[in-house]
Write a structure and sequence with these properties.
Length: 90
Amino acid sequence: MDWKIFLAAFWTILLAELGDKTQLAAISLVAKSKAPLIVFLGSVGAFALVTLIAVLFGEGITRVIPKNYIHIGAGVLFIVMGILMLSGKL
């Protein structure tokens, strides 16, 4: 296993997901159901499935589109989303 890639993925996802709407949904579900273990298992399962879809999509798209174009496209999308958020249109 390439630990450098593993740790990069771990910390990137951890920091990106920290304090987002998924955590708020989990807090709400636990407060409503009083079943933290079941909410945890459901959340982990859902996040694993979403991540699997993203990984498979990422692997597939890199076979069709060169990596540098993907990086440029992602950068442009982040800039556009940032501008829309700052302007209040998103």
